[in-house]
Each structure stands twice: as C-alpha cells, then as structure tokens.
Amino acid sequence: MLGHNVNMVVRMAKKSTYEISHQEVPKSYAKNVDFEEAFKKILKALSDHIEDKKYNKALKDFILLIQLANGMRISEAIEAAKKIIEDGIMELQMESLKHGDVRVVRVPPQVPRVWISKLRRVSEYPSRNAVIMYCKRTFGVNTHALRHAFITYMAKRGVPPQLIARITGHKKLDMILRYTSKAKAEDIHRKILEDLG
After folding, report:
1. Is residue 10 part of a domain?
2. Greatest C-alpha distance within the chain
3. Residue 34 counted as domain residue
4. Which class for 24: exposed (0-12), middle (13-18), buried (19 or more C-beta within 10 A)?
5. Model confidence over 81-126: pLDDT tens digits?
6. CB 166 within 8 A of CB 154
7. Cβ(45)–Cβ(155) below 8 Å
8. What are phi and psi of 95, to 5 degrees?
9. 90: domain range?
10. Which of 149, 175, 179, 188 has the greatest CB tally within 10 Å of its CB?
11. What is the pLDDT of residues 32-83, one digit of tens each?
12. C-alpha dihedral sign at 132, 137, 140, 146
C-alpha cells in the first residue's frame, strides 16, 4: 500500500518539460505569463514534436503558438491554423469570430515552412476543449493566459492600447486598458525600486 502512495505522489509532482512559469491573477482564471518564456517553450515543444513525428501534439503546439504570437482567442487560433496549414501560407487575413472585424494573422518567422507542411499529415483537427486541456497539461497554464501574455508584452513595449485592441480583435478598450495599465504600473514600481539602489 505504501508503494502505491509513493508512486501517486511522484506522478503528481512530475512537471512537464515545457511548463511555463506563471503567477495567479487575483479574481481571475487567467495567469500572468511571460510572453518571451511562453514563446520559447511552445516553440521548443513544437520543434521536438515535429522531430519525433508526434504530429497530433505538434498541431496543438502550432495552434497555441499562433494564439500567443497574435494575441488571439483559442477558437480563432484553431481556425487560423487550419487555413495556414491547408493553404501553406505564412500570413492571412481573417474575420474575428466574435466581432467580424478583419485582422492579419502571422506565423512567427521562427517556424519553418516545412514544419507547416508536415502538419498536413494530421487527419483531424483538435477540438477547442482538446487544445485547452493539452495547454494545461503540457504548459501548466490556460489558453487565455497566452492571449493575456501577448497583450501585456505589447503594453510593456509601449504599444498604444488602441493598436493592441486592433491587433487582438478587442472591440472595447476597457479590457486592454486594464491589462496595459497594470503592466505599466508594475514596470514603474519596479523601476522606482531599482533606482533606489
């Protein structure tokens, strides 16, 4: 009986190689995630899964990378990935599923075109729920955290909220302003403390 409990604890403590560091966001199901770390880990997972010919996992990695790199909703990222893979393109114009606005979706230049062609070997695209569960299991965060990471990253780089809203397909600025003002406030606070030293 003791051996069974030890095995259970070991399995629960085991982390994914690709787990992304995060902080809980009070009163939200989102998590604060560093955009650059998330990008590197998802790209690494995609590379490893392509190399190991695990194309079903690689497809989910690709969808998550598209979501992160474009600040998209997960359902939009799945649709964009389908079009990118089927048409063999690196950039497309796509209608937002929520508001119908047209936006440009780009494949990061770090993704070789040959990887996209290998993803055509997958016979069926995953459901939204399958991608959400994969993201939690593999990267330790929910998919919304990736969209939030993109918005926060853009804000920290000084991109105006109106442009972030245009890129991410937000119709109203209030959510963008909440993300961007929090990111700027954190940066200002950090800078003040660093300047003391």
Report:
1. no
2. 59
3. yes
4. exposed
5. 999 999 999 999 987 666 667 788 999 999 999 999 999 999 999 9
6. no
7. no
8. -80, 135
9. 25-196
10. 149
11. 899 999 999 999 999 999 999 999 999 999 999 999 999 999 999 999 999 9
12. negative
Q: Is 100 left (phi over 0), alpha (psi -120 to 50) or beta?
A: left
Instruction: Give the gyration radius of the chain's Cα atoms.
Output: 18
Q: Tell me, letter by letter, the H, E, C secondary structure of the chain.
A: CHHHHHHHHHHHHCCCCCCCCEEECCCCCCEEECHHHHHHHHHHHHHHHHHCCCHHHHHHHHHHHHHHHHCCCHHHHHHHHHHHHHHCCCEEEEECCCCCCEEEEECCCCCCHHHHHHHHHCCCCCCHHHHHHHHHHHHCCCHHHHHHHHHHHHHHCCCCHHHHHHHHCCCCHHHHHHHHHHHHHHHHHHHHHHHHC
Structure tokens at 86: 């089927």
Domains contained in the chain, number: 1
Q: What's the rounded mean pLDDT across residues 143-168?
A: 85
Within a domain: 68: yes
Q: Which of 162, 5, 196, 168 is nearest to 96 (CA)?
A: 168
Q: Look up residue 165 and give its two tokens.
A: 């809203």
* CATH code of residue 65: 1.10.443
Tell me how long the chain is.
Answer: 197
